[in-house]
């Protein structure tokens, strides 16, 4: 679904920070669409605090269902600016004042690649301002006409959609996964969990007895790579940065945690695994990538799912010893392959459903870090996303970093 809403929704008692009158300009992504897609029908949405206009894609409720989610005040975190979310497409069936009990808390996830997306590296043609964030968990407050076949108002769903750093958002019903409750554990599965699951399933070639090295193993996606490899009967090695993280890795089945601040990763691998490792799940890049290449066994494979050590540089890359790489791969009949989740979306729905079942049954640990141990405390509200990103790049997190968005009692949409 494509929507280009105009006319800000007022917050209870007045407009929120950044809200302003008048229409909101089309984003660059919308402006680039073929003109027939930009023919909108204007409707009036009933609002508690007065009227507001919004535009609606005439196809909503026909060819593609849409959901509107709620987790707090009307707001959005936008690359280049912070502004209020101007609302949602019309044609929705909302719940008015009949707010189900228990609704209120919503969470958004922080990913290492958020910094790449906001820097324009995923799509250099997109200029600021544009919405950022990839994932969230929320409760449905309104439905497109055909979305009611699968979803209901008040239902909790998890969703992966660009622009998710927002307190209200609109996503196609087809990408919303029902989950048992609005808890952050389910959010960990959307990007981090599915990346590990699909990557290892499609590219890992995991078999019982294989040796698997996971870098940044105590992070958002590393925790799942460790557990899934262990469930496949593999011997799992995981790198991390503290004794606390080592203890966590042991608790989820990691056979050999390596704290690289107290042990040299290359030395440990050469001494304890002289035959090399069969699979590397690599997300750090730079020097860690070089060490992992050297540690590959004959016919070993290294899967690149990221290179966080370089994301804060001007190019987004960290240097590697590429000059000798062809010779190293040839000598071992080894291979390197990249994995980008967007190229495996045909596997996404089934994988997400499977992971939700594993999480619900307790068969999968979904470690969440809400920043309680950070200097300024828990990550609460969109304004704390900046702190959460810094926290991640300082290597402080254990598990997936999640930001909580509080639900104002007086909000009625």
UniProtKB/TrEMBL annotation:
One of its GO terms (molecular function) is zinc ion binding. Its EC number is 1.3.1.48. It comes from the Eukaryota. Residues 1-27, 77-103 are annotated as: Disordered. One of its GO terms (cellular component) is mitochondrion. Keywords: NADP, Oxidoreductase. It is an enzyme of class 1 (oxidoreductase). Residues 87-403 form the Enoyl reductase (ER) domain. Pfam families: ADH_N, ADH_zinc_N. Gene3D superfamilies: Medium-chain alcohol dehydrogenases, catalytic domain, NAD(P)-binding Rossmann-like Domain. Belongs to the zinc-containing alcohol dehydrogenase family. Quinone oxidoreductase subfamily. This is 15-oxoprostaglandin 13-reductase. It comes from Myotis davidii (David's myotis).
């Amino acid at each position: 679904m494509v929507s280009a809403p105009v006319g800000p929704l007022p917050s209870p008692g007045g407009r929120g920070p950044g809200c302003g009158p008048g229409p909101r300009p089309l984003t660059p992504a919308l402006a680039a669409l073929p003109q027939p897609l930009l023919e909108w029908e204007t409707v009036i949405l009933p609002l508690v605090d007065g009227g507001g206009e919004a535009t609606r894609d005439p196809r909503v409720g026909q060819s593609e269902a849409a959901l509107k989610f709620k987790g707090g005040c009307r707001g959005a975190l936008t690359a280049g600016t912070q502004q209020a979310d101007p609302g949602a497409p019309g044609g929705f069936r909302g719940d008015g004042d009949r707010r189900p009990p228990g609704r209120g808390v919503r969470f958004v996830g922080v990913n290492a690649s958020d910094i790449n997306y906001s820097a324009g590296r995923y799509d250099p043609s997109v200029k600021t301002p544009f919405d950022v964030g990839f994932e969230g968990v929320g409760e449905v407050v309104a439905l497109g006409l055909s979305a009611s076949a699968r979803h209901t108002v008040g239902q909790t769903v998890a969703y992966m959609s660009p622009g998710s750093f927002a307190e209200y958002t609109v996503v196609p019903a087809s990408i919303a996964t029902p989950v048992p409750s609005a808890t952050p554990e389910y959010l960990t599965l959307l990007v981090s969990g599915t990346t590990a699951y699909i990557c290892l399933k499609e590219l890992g070639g995991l078999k019982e007895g294989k040796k698997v090295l996971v870098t940044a193993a105590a992070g958002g996606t590393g925790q799942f790579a460790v557990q899934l490899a262990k469930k496949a009967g593999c011997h799992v090695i995981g790198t991390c940065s503290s004794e606390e993280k080592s203890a966590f890795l042991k608790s989820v089945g990691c056979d050999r945690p390596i704290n690289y601040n107290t042990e040299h990763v290359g030395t440990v691998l050469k001494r304890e695994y002289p035959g090399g490792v069969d699979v590397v799940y690599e997300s750090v890049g730079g020097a860690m990538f070089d060490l992992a290449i050297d540690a590959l066994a004959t016919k070993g494979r290294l899967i690149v799912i990221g290179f966080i050590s370089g994301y804060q540089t001007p190019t987004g890359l960290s240097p590697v010893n590429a000059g000798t790489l062809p010779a190293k791969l040839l000598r071992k009949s080894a291979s390197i392959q990249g994995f980008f989740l967007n190229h495996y979306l045909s596997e996404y729905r089934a994988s997400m459903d499977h992971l939700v079942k594993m999480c619900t049954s307790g068969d999968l640990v979904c470690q969440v870090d809400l920043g309680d141990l950070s200097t300024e405390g828990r990550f609460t509200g969109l304004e704390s996303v900046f702190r959460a990103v810094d926290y991640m790049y300082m290597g402080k997190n254990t598990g997936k970093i999640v930001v909580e968005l509080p639900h104002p009692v007086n909000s009625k949409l």
